[in-house]
């Protein structure tokens, strides 16, 4: 199998000027831009947890496995450099499955100029596991972190939130281009990608920054999928927008003047929405009438018995 | 769990000057040496395939998962920069298991100055999976590849071969320091780490280089574990040395003069042995009496039904 897939890799995966040595050697060798810092992130997706191989098309699964990693690069405003793909494939039909996974992920990789530099392809009796490491680069002076938010900053999000489980969990667009544009053209104090729900990821950003926030209930952009899900399960659409996972939109803390300009210009193609502001402490939701209530950092978290 | 482990990571994993931003953000940010090229490799280990969680201590499993990656960096003579660790943990006892895996791998990481820069920790109903990506750096002029062997080159190996399944598959020492010393002090035309057996990995090096080789039967360094295994299974010790996987020694193609010098000096601490020489084509085993027989590239390969 290794040889079949290696041959297929060599024939299929396009060469890229950043990859000095690619799939088929012991390791990949990559050229970064002069003085760039390296950004590295990894995510593992498992059948039965992050997708259902019996239900979801392998192309969408492969795409998602790369997309979640690209979203992490976007949260640091990093230019993708390359990705490494490790697979634990079921014995039966593994080669065909690998090819369909790759079909999905290489399409997304090409769109974001993120060549596949290598990986490790295995088979076993267990369920499908995909582990991808994405590598990116940032100029040393670029400092998008979770930790830079300041009281008074406006909180902005891209796109709309909630209900991703209905389909967007596979088809979301990692906000790589939007992040790179913002990093080049605007001042961003702190950033995170919303992977586990707005409330939880906002809480993480605030924890890292040592400040608080008020979220304006009426400003949270509710995705139509969140409305649809609310009709099905009877929970308020706002709950879904605040607490559903896998939106993979950007959450940004931006100085107020900069926020005004960006909100007026809407330079990204995707909507940029102000959902609230950073304060000294606490995490609050403000109702349209002005009443404040605590916003609990609920969202998606893997559970594990200690 | 994420929070438990993140807290534990922050408290346990030492800071490192190369890691500008480490575990706990969306991605790690790493500083490479000026002008260095990035080397990236990834390996996934699975319960029931690469180890047996019911039999092997988690510390040894964690160590191995990092060691196989460091061995790939050694094959490129790359200085380790950092590693990323992804885990799919069984639900029950997952946190304790993660801590024992980390205990094994961080000890090895410290020895090779390879800090853990991040990862992804998950739990599921399936068996344990560990996927590690190791990042390294090489000066742009350093060109250890599989592909540079030339007819006339001496073939050298470090250490001794075969029988690793008895214990060394977990306890082998990745030849990082040896590779870095050789890269700084000697001319090496081609290199590979022997992960799937000497015969198969030599064949890979020859394929990449477009040449052949003769292996001297009497020169192959047979590990005592290969002798032990031979006593148990009745196969010749040489077979084990040629075809067993997981030795993780270095195989090098070196110009003959350079080889003479290295063999006389033995500068590595671990023995450096000449096992044969590169020729124009074919892969041959030479008996002590001089007779040549074809050496089949048999070794360990994952099997997968297409």
Write a compact overview of the structure shown.
Two copies of one chain form a homodimer. With 306 residues, chain A is an alpha+beta fold. Helices cover 33% and strands 27% of the residues of chain A.
Which secondary structure elements does this structure contain, and how are they paired or packed?
2 copies of one chain form a homodimer.
Chain A lengths: L1 H11 L6 E3 L6 E3 L6 E10 L11 H18 L3 E12 L3 H18 L4 E9 L4 E10 L15 E5 L9 H4 L4 H10 L4 E5 L3 H12 L2 E5 L7 H10 L3 H7 L5 E6 L1 H10 L6 E8 L3 E4 L5 E3 L12
Parallel strand pairs in A: 4-5, 9-12
Antiparallel strand pairs in A: 1-2, 3-6, 4-6, 7-10, 7-11, 8-10, 9-11, 12-13
Helix pairs in contact in A: 2-3, 2-5, 7-8
Note down, in words, how this protein is organized.
Two copies of one chain form a homodimer. With 306 residues, the first copy, chain A, is of the alpha+beta class. Chain A is built from nine helices and 13 strands. A seven-stranded mixed sheet of chain A has the order 8-10-7-11-9-12-13, sandwiched between helices. In chain A, strands 3-6-4-5 form a four-stranded mixed sheet, with helices on one face. A two-stranded antiparallel ribbon of chain A has the order 1-2. Chain A is globular, with a radius of gyration of 20 Å. Mean pLDDT of chain A is 91; it is low at 302-306. Chains A and B meet through α1, β2, β3, α2 and β4 of A and α1, β2, β3, α2 and β4 of B.
**Number of H/I helices of chain A:** 9
Radius of gyration of chain A: 20 Å
In what order do the strands lie side by side in the largest sheet of chain A? Answer: 8-10-7-11-9-12-13
Largest interface: A-B, 79 and 79 residues
Report the structural category of chain A.
Answer: alpha+beta
Spatial shape of chain A: globular
């Amino acid at each position: 199998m290794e040889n079949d897939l290696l041959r297929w890799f060599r024939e299929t995966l396009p060469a890229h000027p950043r990859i000095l040595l690619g799939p088929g050697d012991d390791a990949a060798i990559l050229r970064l831009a002069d003085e760039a810092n390296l950004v590295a992130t990894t995510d593992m997706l498992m059948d039965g947890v992050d997708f259902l191989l019996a239900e979801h098309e392998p192309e969408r699964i492969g795409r998602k496995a790369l997309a979640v990693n690209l979203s992490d690069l976007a949260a640091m405003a990093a230019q993708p450099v390359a990705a490494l793909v490790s697979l634990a494939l079921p014995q039966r039909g593994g080669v065909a499955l690998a090819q369909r996974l790759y079909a999905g992920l290489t399409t997304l990789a090409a769109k974001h100029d993120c060549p596949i530099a290598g990986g490790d392809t295995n088979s076993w009796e267990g369920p499908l596991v995909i582990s991808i490491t994405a590598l990116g680069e940032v100029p040393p002076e670029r400092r998008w972190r979770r930790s830079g938010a300041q009281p008074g900053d406006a909180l902005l999000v891209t796109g709309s939130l909630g209900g991703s489980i209905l389909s967007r969990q596979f088809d979301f667009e990692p906000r790589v281009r939007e992040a790179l544009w913002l990093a080049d053209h605007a001042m961003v104090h702190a950033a995170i990608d919303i992977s586990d729900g707005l409330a939880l990821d906002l809480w993480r950003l605030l924890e890292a920054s040592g400040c608080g926030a008020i979220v304006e209930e009426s400003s949270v952009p509710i995705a139509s999928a969140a409305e649809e899900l609310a009709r099905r399960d009877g929970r308020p659409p706002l709950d879904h927008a605040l607490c559903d996972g896998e939106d993979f939109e950007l959450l940004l803390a931006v100085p107020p003047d900069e926020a005004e300009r960006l909100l007026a210009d809407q330079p990204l193609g995707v909507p940029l929405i102000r959902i609230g502001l950073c304060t000294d402490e606490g995490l609050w939701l403000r109702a349209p009438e002005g009443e404040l209530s605590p916003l609990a950092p609920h969202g998606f978290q893997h559970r594990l018995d200690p």
